[in-house]
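Researcher: Go.
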Amino acid sequence: MTTAYDFDFTAIDGSPLPLKKFEGQAMMVVNVASKCGFTPQYEGLQKIYAQYRDRGFTLIGVPSNQFLWQEPAKELEIAAFCRVNYSVTFPMTEKTHVKGSKAHPFYKWMREQLGRSAHPAWNFHKLLVGKQGQPLMAFKSGVEPESSVIRHAIEAAL
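Model: Structure:
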């Protein structure tokens, strides 16, 4: 049976980022962009990552330029923007396709597992994976990272 831990990304610094590294942890994977109305959600994402990481939770940011070209920067610029403006410390990937025929295999798999709700319609779409690597839920862009619905879902996943 396929799990989320069977997929690999490339980290924002160009190094391998196998999800197997996070095996046994609950994970939230979020497609992000620096020039979006939802960009301030980086602050909330960092807060939930900091709050739950010691309990077996990780958060992975996946920059994508697929929604009105709102992530035009190169990887090093994206990393610096996130660090300087939002003190981001959670892992991030290189720029990645999250929808369409070129979508990363993880995103295609999540959609197969959860259906339409797992298909990112915009930046800051959130996908929650359980500790056994199983798809749990998808959250639309407008759902704030620190909202009670996300906090309850993370708590249940842990």
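Model: The CA atoms of residues 60 and 91 lie 5 Å apart.
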